[in-house]
Design a protein that fits this description.
Layout lengths: L1 H16 L16 E4 L3 E5 L19 H7 L2 H5 L5 E6 L3 E8 L2 E6 L11 E6 L3 E2 L9 E4 L3 E6 L6 E6 L3 E8 L2 E5 L5 E5 L3 E4 L10 H9 L11 E2 L2 E2 L1 H11 L8 H5 L3 E3 L9 E6 L2 E10 L2 E4 L8 E4 L5 E6 L3
Antiparallel strand pairs: 1-4, 1-7, 2-3, 4-5, 5-6, 8-11, 8-14, 9-10, 9-13, 11-12, 12-13, 15-16, 17-22, 18-19, 18-22, 19-20, 20-21
Length: 325
């Protein structure tokens, strides 16, 4: 009996001192290495001191996006202009450039920007990142609804995390009515197969046609404008166009000005669906929309308004660019 107890004690001790691969410690987030977004949507801030008291729900893990948006006044939404310019979605890879206390300065490679050749820069709370390397998978599930719930991987299928349109997760398996996915923190969750597109890595989540670009943009009708928004919880003008093109297999610049400097120049008389239209004041680009055909365009206009389709405006019309076909 004594030997048995001793053996059990040694086994327990070995599990503490020599953890198995399945329970091995995850490396910490550190400068010079990749990390992955571990919350439904992470804000990139201008500095660690940029967030206000009202922004606390946006700094947590799990992030409380809807509570944050609900509690902000119109004036507080407008004040995001000087504090935060973009977001990154669950599972998105970032490169950590430096660490300051509980904050990490990162660049987002999938969001090209003239601000940094490596990707869009900003500060993120380290609690919203993980250094756990994603497992290899032959399939990816991309959320193609405005948002979709990730649920527990059991009969209860309880709601755990609300993921945004455009979120990409590794597929574990496909069940009847469900797709089992792996989160950045290593958990296996279920998501309705009607809410995602399952495809090979590198393939497009949605058909890459001009008409489909417009259909996707219009699927956000009624969604409130959010400065720096890049998700199904809220979008700014260039966030709408970036998120749309990415779902259809093309990565464009994150902000309106650099979007206006790439692609193929298009005359107003030859506009086609999916072309981007830019508006400027004194030659300074401040807005981007997507041409929807028949003299109309889809836009996320300004704080206090919602995504909508309206006639193409003459006032401050600056130029148009074509990224597809």
């Amino acid at each position: 009996m004594t030997r048995r107890l001793l053996a059990l004690a040694l086994v327990a001790l070995s599990r503490v001192l020599l953890p198995s691969a399945a329970h091995a410690a995850v490396p910490s987030v550190s400068a010079g290495h990749d990390a992955w977004v571990a919350v439904s949507v992470a804000r990139l801030w201008e500095s660690p001191s940029s967030p206000r008291t009202v922004d606390r729900p946006a700094l947590e893990r799990p992030v409380r996006v809807r509570a944050w948006l609900r509690d902000m006044s119109l004036a507080q939404r407008k004040a995001l202009f000087s504090r935060s310019d973009t977001e990154a979605l669950l599972g998105e890879r970032v490169r950590v450039t430096r660490v300051r206390g509980s904050w990490a300065h990162v660049v987002v490679p999938d969001q090209p920007s003239p601000k940094d050749a490596r990707g869009y820069p900003g500060w993120v709370p380290m609690r919203q990142l993980t250094a756990r390397t994603p497992l290899a998978s032959t399939q990816v599930a991309t959320v193609v609804r405005r948002t979709a719930w990730l649920r527990t991987d059991d009969a209860a299928a309880a709601k755990v995390l609300e993921a945004s349109f455009g979120t990409r997760l590794k597929v574990v398996s496909v069940l009847d009515g469900w797709v089992r996915v792996r989160t950045p923190l290593g958990a296996t969750r279920r998501v309705s197969d009607t809410a995602v597109s399952v495809h090979a890595p590198g393939a497009t989540a949605l058909p890459r046609t001009r008409a489909d670009l417009v259909t996707t943009a219009q699927s956000f009708h009624g969604l409130p404008y959010l400065w720096g928004g890049l998700s199904g919880f809220g979008l700014d003008c260039s966030g709408l166009t970036w998120l749309d093109f990415r779902a259809h297999g093309q990565t464009i610049r994150r902000d309106a000005l650099p979007q206006s400097q790439h692609g193929t120049a298009v005359r107003r008389t030859t506009l086609r669906k999916g072309d981007l239209i830019f508006y400027a004041t004194a030659g300074k680009v401040h807005h981007v929309t997507m041409y929807a055909g028949a003299g109309r365009m889809v836009e996320a206009p300004h704080t206090g308004a919602v995504v909508r389709t309206v006639p193409v405006r003459d006032h401050e019309y600056f130029r148009a660019r074509r990224y597809l076909g």
